[in-house]
Protein 1
Amino acid sequence: MQNKKISVFDTTLRDGEQTPGVSLTSSQKLEIAHQLDKLGVDMIEAGFPISSEGDKESVKSISNAGLDSVVCGLARVLTKDIDACFESDVGLVHTFVPTSDVQRVYTIKKSREEVVELAVKAVEYIKDHGLKCMFSAMDATRTEPAYMLEVFKAVQDAGCDIINVPDTVGVMSPSAMCRMIKDVAKEIRIPIDVHCHNDFGLAVANSLMAVEAGASQVQVTINGIGERAGNADLSQTVMGLTAIYGAKTNIRTEYLVETSKMIENYTGVRLPPNTPVVGQNAFSHESGIHSHGVLEKSDTFEPGIMTPEMVGHRRRIVLGKHTGTHAVKTSLESAGIKANEKQLEEIVCKIKEIANKGKQITDADLFAVTSAVLGKASSEEELIKLKEVSVMTGNILTPTAVVKASIGGKEVIAANTGLGPVDAALKAVRDILGERNRFKLQEFRIDAISGGADALADVYIGLENEKGRIVTARAANPDIVMASVEALVNAMNLLYKDKT
């Protein structure tokens, strides 16, 4: 595996879009295709052209976008499907037919002999038109092995360029996948590709074992989205191949987090914070022992062979009830705040008291506690002092917000419109800083404290300045607009304080 070159075939735009509840626009698909090309994937499965005119046009636009990645279209072993791929200007046609008895009998109602004939004719038709061809034996992992090899040999003899072995319903174990791919590799001369589903949470492991057994290409999706429980996740598969096995890919791993966030935004499918590689907590530490070790040497409680910088992430020291003195001291020093040993001990104690009540500790909480302990009035250090917020909205009105604030003692008024009252209010708050408004909203989260219509809105905001420093702040208010505005103002004041 050391230095073995592995090709990455991304099917986010095809299988990924089959995620229940996900529907991408043509413009979103094109933007995602450009991002995948930037990421360095070798092949992009842009869609299933025969499925609709819209999908066909989308695939065609991606095919003609001048990407370095090879653009692929999916087709059944039917002439009309393959023609739709030709008309979409793809560089590779991925054709498939069910080969397992359960799918062959109940979905296409064909004999084994008929399936072989259909597969061969499809491959020959594609090759006669001068295009590359990938063939998939759909549900290969539930297909009788001898028959599966018969099909693969037949399409290989017909001129197929790549064989795909799909674990269509995710039933393989890593050891079984290894044995299967080894058996296929003994009989097949052309490159072997695998497409693993995640029904038992084994898609990445099965993909890695397939490569170890002889496969040279993996099919993956961003964030592991796809049918049912999804597909093998690109970031986990690629980092497993490169960091653990020492294999080579064309993936520019520093764009993994950036690409993951784009897919999150466009699909609405949010990742759990503990998602490997790209999740919010992938390089976050709270435990006192862990934080102390990582701050001294990151390899103590991180893999070492994979750093946050490698995948476009940042290391985060999160404060909470497990926080140690070293982590708090480092957080304060990074903001230019010094506390003596006794003061630091008191700050840590108060932070733990707050966390033990179930509250997530933000930078605003830390600095508020620190200011109190050090005897400083935090209000004296605020650049922005909010005076007035008013919002107009309704079914026939464009949501509009007006914000009045004191900026360094000077009164400023700003107004803006938005998609909703919260969006309008946040835009107006950002406008009051004018040219000093150089930060990026990294995170915005709203939670309801207790139930009912009178629930308190708890808003959590993360902001990043031009230096790459991220601060977090929170505000709670029965009015969701005011909670959002107050949280943003708190975070902006923290960034200004850091800058000064």
Note: The longest helix spans residues 480-499.
Protein 2
Amino acid sequence: MNGDVDAPEGSILRLEHGDIHVRQDGPRDAPVLLLIHGSAASSRSWDALVPLLTTLHRVIRIDLPGHGRSAEPVDGDYAIPEQGRRIGAALDRLGVEHAVVVGHSSGGYAATALAEQRPGLVTALALINTGPGMDAFIAPEPPALRPAQWPPTDEQIRQIASTGFRAGYQVPQELVDELRCMTYRAVAAAMQASITYLNQRALPDRLMVLGKPLQVIFGDQDRRWRPSSAADYRVVPGAQVELLPDAGHTPILEDPPRTAALLLSFAEIHTVRAPEAT
């Protein structure tokens, strides 16, 4: 008995360093698409996209440690390599042998770490508005919040999250609620982990040596990362770089149809399918 718990909204996997919440949609025998959300978000950020992906794929979503319904790590370790290890452990528990891995925003760093550690598991990577290096970060400094001021008000959260979308886009209430439910420690540590990972080595440099097929999708109205920085990924041999017109930092919510179409086209080429029974 592994102690895992099934629920209508997904499953809780009892892992060594803290419970991990996963959601699965689509045929269980179909090729796997793994979706990894960004900092201060959860698997719910993919809700609008998932129905567009499940016809041909088993779509797995993971709440990163301290996010959504996943527990904070018992050892307090939010480092990106550790996030990659925990994602790998969750996929092992689910019996996944191969996956096309999709990361949104800082979720792309956990996706890259997973590929660095488990190259046999990750067949291809798709990154959506994932900043390539800290020199491309353009968002203004958010209002300072101290632990004693946590949780913030709805208005404070909307102010913090506003650059996560194109100008004029209404921040969804469910995302406001999700962030408010996180601890100050989880939000601050996860964001610092992403900065540390990028400062150690820029993402294109990491991806160049992996030899994995790469798709990069960037909204051309991103207000967190300089949209032209998407071109930095072209140093990766064979990288496909797509700019989405009129989309901001979160095209998975702002423009699900176009985002899904790009992902499906990429996954179709790079999916590893199980051999048919004879």
Note: The chain has one domain: 5-270.
Protein 3
Amino acid sequence: MDNFVLTWLGHSCFRIDVAGTMVLIDPFITGNPSAKVKADELYPDIIAVTHGHNDHLGDTVEIAKRTGCTVVCIHELSKYLKSKDAKTEGMNIGGTVKIGDLSFTMTDARHSSSIDEAGREIDGGRAAGFIIKAGERSVYHAGDTGLFGDMELISRLYSPDVAILPIGGRYTMGPEDAALAVEMLRPKTVVPMHYNTFGVISQDPQVFAGYVKTVSDADVIIMEIDCPVFL
């Protein structure tokens, strides 16, 4: 059974190493005040982008063009990235793309999505999350989302071992709603994200962990930037 090695690069950006493959999710590195790595130091095999906002799309174009890696994303965003000469695998909610030994299933997320290029709004399709599966194990990266009832269905369909959830509030779920998401998803391990990058999403992750304890026996891992965790 392959272990996931999870590294938080700040905000919603994670590096996942599994089955000899490096996956980079939402590579907002340049301009991210919590990031310790530089975009040109990253050489992923696959990038997964949950939606087109700059704090998630981030350095995708630069990294993809430099490394030749494949970008997995929603159809409209895939078209945009192809116009920038990035290699993409476009998909949509409910679909699955298999790349090597990994599969990426796109889930719903309750959030907006657009690309701001030189002051011009470009259609970025819908916001989404991903179930990333290697063998019998899976990680759910929720992307930016509010709480929604179909998280029960995500649990039923995919039984994620690890759930990576936003807790920052204002633009996504806050700690209390995110704890209810844990109750619905029933993962073994939970990792909070999308908090404390900027003042408007300041949160104490220990408060989130406290809420989780009231509804679930899942382990809450509060990650440090650039410190890998074996799961």
Note: The chain has one domain: 5-230.
Protein 4
Amino acid sequence: MNDTGLRICGVTAGYGRAPVLQGVDLAVPPARFTALIGPNGCGKSTMLRVLAGQIRCTRGRVTLDGADIARQPARALARRIGILAQSAEAPEGLTVGELVRQGRYPHRSLLGGWREADTLAVEEALALTGISHLRHRRLDTLSGGQRQRAWIAMTLAQQSGILLLDEPTTFLDLAHQIEVLSLVRRLVRERQTTVVAVLHDLNQAARHADHMVMLKAGTIRTGGDPATVLTGNAVRDVFGVETVVIADPEAGTPMCIPRRDPAIEMSRDMSDGAPHA
């Protein structure tokens, strides 16, 4: 078996005595964009935290290049894996530049000063995310898309090579969703970054991701390229929704369209035909 990269091996994990993931196996494709999809409460965010070493496994293990991440010091692991939580918060008044500088924490010793390598990493992260001109702006004055790019820049300043994103497009409008996902694609293509992200929009996941993993009730139901994963049968099984899957006319990737509910259509027709008082 090839032990390179990030792997979940027979993992059961959760919170307290209640397991959320149950006997899960997953090999994360290196230098690819993997999207975790599934209904609320299925274990997507838990899987992300397990991959980051933030939740200990009750069974199984998570390995990085064959080594158990549970045995690695937190600072050393943070140099390899960066995670951006769903509801990341920063102290009031913090500027973009100050936030991104915090990404250098894993590389600095307790008594070590700020080094030229730290400055270069911060500048590179700001440039890569296109927010160098915002370095002196306070986070609370930015748009949703700009703020999300600032958080991603902080994670990039870690220079980890593996980036875990928990619902990076939630609460963003369509333009900012596209902005963030396009940035992720660039990181994979230009920097060979390994990205795993929790996404809710199936069609966005299929359009932007190289690899998709569909979860239900703490188990992986299917995984592979978008054309393999996003099928009518899989969506029915996992989400309980009847759909038609067609080719995206722009990208050629699978596009999932929910079928009309006959009961709703009948109710609408009756309402339209009812006499008005």
Note: The chain has a mean pLDDT of 88.
